[in-house]
Structures are given as structure tokens and as C-alpha cells.
Amino acid sequence: MGGLGIVRVCSGSLGLVRVRSGLFAKRRPCDSGKLASAVSQSLRLVRAILAAGWTVLAFGGTQAPPIADSDFRAWYDVQTYRLDLKVEPEASRLSGVVGIEAKVVQGPLQSFELDLLSGRKVLAAVEIGGAISPGSSLSGKAVPFKHEGDRVRIRLSRAYSVGQSVRVAVSYELVANPSERRWGIRFGKTTDGKPWISTSCQVLGGHSWWPCKGENEHPSDKFARLFVNATVPKGLFAVSNGRLLRRSSPQAGWETFHWRHDYPCENYAVTLNVAPYVEVKSELRLPEIAKPVPFHYYVLPGDLDKAKLEFQAVPRMLEIYSEAFGPYPFPNSKFGLVQTDFWGMEHSTAVAYGNTWPSWLKKEGKEDPRAGPNKYFDYILIHEVAHEWWGNAVSAADWGHLWIHEGFATYTEGVYVEKLFGRAKADEYFATLRPRVSEQFREYRGRGALPSQAFNNNVYWKGAWILNTLRYYVDDDPKWWKSLREFNMRFRYRNATTEDFQKVLEEVTGKSWHRFFQEWFYGDGLPTLKGSVTPTERAIVVEVQNSATRDNRFHVPLYLRWTEGSRSVAKTLLLSPGSNRFSVDCAERPSDVEAVGLQRVLGVVDVRVGAPEALFAAL
Asked: What are the structural domains, with CATH classification, of the chain?
């Protein structure tokens, strides 16, 4: 029999057509008014063929040739993804075509591999000739494929050499269980019974709901650009990454939303949200960006007033992040927030927001069910938006370095508090995180770790606390902020490692930080500092026992500051593992002695500062 192929795409939407004699029929530009019915008929045809036992759609063949068991995903670098999707809420069905354009980095490559979790159906695969754009044709030559487990293996028509571009398109469908989120996409309902569809796939991976090169095993391959053409029932609004190019109506009762995101991004940050959203549009003037940045948010009609109040914090929040870490990374797309039926996720330029509207609850005098996380700020707003800098702009090269996403984003919460309310308030905020940190946890999760192995609450809390401690060690705020900004800007739109951050810090400060990184990022345990700092007639006596909660050993600086007459004096001591005793000579009797910032060291700190009689009274 003939194969099936993907026909020319008009207006960025999907169509399938029967192919005779193994050749693709020549088609004129599509009639968009007939598109939706063609999609439905074609998918029914494909499903019927699959049910009859046909495993591969190719030139009259029924079985793909054997493909060697090798990870050919490492042999190419993704440049472009295009998702042409149709959402059928009542059937909990998502179907469509994903076009992939990639550059060969190891060759010759003839086996092209993708990921799509089992339980989803690959319907066809074709090889495309021309470059992929938002509305280009996704038609081409049908090629053999296998979908075994979570892997899709496609046999290309020829071998491609290093540097050449490979372009394929894969049609697929899934029918999700509405009550489960393991599909990566959830078909839910609003309180008044309207469709409310959202995606969330961190740890699961983007390949839980669309065919792609799975980031779980290849996190360093960030695509360069993304096009999403989402067709949904009329009356619903489809939100995705980037900027909305246009809206079209392929046929009565359906509407297609055409999105474009021209920035590198990780697959789990790709999103699709469909609901009867109200879109609120404005523009923001942000630091170091010449043109106004579009600020759009999408909320359910009944929550519009809550959103208007809650999102008043956005301009100042973005200013703080921009001043600390560099200008907003995605100005040509948008800054976007999308109401979801789950708590939140860092979907790039379409950040998922499902918090409790704490500002509105406070205004109305109502109890906040998430009062703990929302004590200092709207937690989801502040944390998830921080990921636009940490995770989306700068991404971990390996899941072992996940703290670059979550540790930095959690540290950014403290930065936000500090810039609004001062350093003392930030110290108070970090103190609330301290009891949650596990002394057994190693921040670096190990080379080759999968997301399920890397994710842990301590990646957030301990990561943030290590950064807070590192700032104490650096003891030079201008260099500290310069280091964070330089790290973000140097690795923006790229992938980075813990070693990359160390290198930037060493360049900016002019010091080696090898020992710190080995003790804090790669080691477990926490330091325990117990002792006293005692001023005498002409000296300051320091006696501190530096032990650890695990086998690790820590070297901790002690910054002393005091007054001699009218003169302010400072000295730095290094508390090595074990017993430490110092006697610091003074020209006059020391007063106002301080161990500056010692409370900013993550660990058990019990170092008393004062004259002997004061220490005795404290006991």
C-alpha cells in the first residue's frame, strides 16, 4: 500500500494526506477553511492503519529496517522546533506534527533519534528538504521509524555529514488521563466547567507531551528557536512561549494561535496553556533595554481583579533582577504570566502562576492557605520569575549542577527582600530557610544524574545558603555583584557548570576559590563553630573549636571589627578545622568588638563576643 505523509502546512497548521505509489502527492497551498476536517480524517486513517498492524509508514513497507542500538541523540544539535498542535478538550486529546531542524555534530548520521514517552502514538515520520519556519511546508519523504519504549528511531534516506542540517517531521497523538499529570499535559476544567489545559513536565521532560530530544539525558542541547501553532476550539485562548505573531481561523469553530520564541531554551520550559483567558497587555521600561518590553498576562475572567493587584509587584521585581544579574534575557519575546491550575513553573516568557493571590487575600482580610511561603512576598511570582535568569537564560550543562537553577533562584528571593527592605531583613529571611537544610546533602548531584536523582528541596535551600555564605567569604559586595552579573551574562543562552561559576568568581575577585567549592558544593556536612571572642586590656583573644557534622572539614574566615579610641580597626582570621586560638594585639583597649556577619555562615554557629563579665552574665 502507499505510505502516509505530511502535506504542506498553511498558516502553520497541520494536515495529513494519503500518498500513492510511495510518492508524496503534489499539493497546492492549503485551503485553511478545510484544514480542521482534513486533520480529523487523516488522523482517523492513520489510527486505522496502526490498528491493522502497520508499524511504519514508508514507501509501501510495513517494517522498519533494523537500527543499531546506539544513542544517536548525541550526534546532532537541535536548532529549531516547530509544534503544530490541535487540542481537543472534550476528548483529552492532543495531536499534531513536530518539525525538527538539527545540525549534525558527529557523523555520518543516518539514524535520527528522538524521545516520546510510551503511551503516546507516533503516527508518521518524514524527511524535509527546506528550512523550517513558522509557516513553511512540513511535507517531505516518508521514512521508516520505530517507537520502542520512550525512544523514537528514524531511518533517514541518506547519511548526513558533520555540519549538514537534518530536518524531519513527526506526527503523533496522545489521549491523556484527565486526572493524571504524568502525561506532561493536563486536561482540566475551570470552576464553571470550561476547558483549562496546562503543561508541566519538569523531571518528566518535554518528551512527556511532544516528540523532542529529551533533556533528561541531554540537558545541554538547548534549541535556538521555537515556533508553536496551536489550534483550539473557538472561545479559548492558547498561550505559549515567545510573542504572538497572529491568530487565524482554519475553519468554523476553531482558532489557531501562532507563537514564536527566538531564544535558546530547555525543552521542559516549553509550554501550552489553553483556557478562556483574558489577556492583559502593557509595556515595561527595564534597565539597559532600549525598547519597551511587552508585559502580558493571561488569567481567568473571574480572577482579573486579583491579578491586577498581585502583578503590581512585577515592574519593581524585574528591575531588581535586571540590576543584579543583567538585563531581562528575552526582551524581543515578552515577559508573560499565565494562570494555571497548579502552583507554578518557570516556563520561559509564559511563567505558570497558580498561587493564592496573597495580596488580594490580605486586602480582603482573608486567610492565606499558603501563608508560610508567602510571608515575605508572593512566593511563586518571585521564585519562578527568577528562573528567567537562572535556568532559562543560564542552564545547567548537566543535571548534577541543578543548583544553578534552583539554588540561584532561591538566593534571588533573598536578593529581592534585601533590595526592598534591607540586608537585615534578608538575613531574617535566610534564617527561616536554615532549619530546612540537610547536613547530609551534597549540593553537586553527580555527573550524569537524571532529574529525578538531582531534584531535592536542598538543591533550593542549601544552594541559596551556600551562595549567602560565599558572599560572606568574598567580603566585597561590588565584586560579589559583579561576579553574579558576569556569570549570568557570559553564559546567557548557554549551559554552565559549577566550575564555570568558580572561574568567573576567581577572575573577578583575583582569588582562588578551589577550597571553598570543594568543601561547600562538592562536600557534605556543615561546620560547627563554638567558642568566644574576648577583648582584654590590650588584645582580643579568639578561642573557637571548628568541627563538622560529617567527615568534611571547613575553613571559615572570621572578620573582626572593633574600636580603639576614635579609630576603627578590622582584622581577618581563618578558622581552620580543629582548635583555633589567636591573640590579636591592640594599641589601646578594644571596645565595640564584633564578629561581622558570622551569622551568614551556613552551619551551627555559637561564638560569643564580649568581655568576660558579659559572657559570664550571658551564661
From this structure: 4-276 (2.60.40.1730), 390-520 (1.10.390.10), 527-618 (2.60.40)
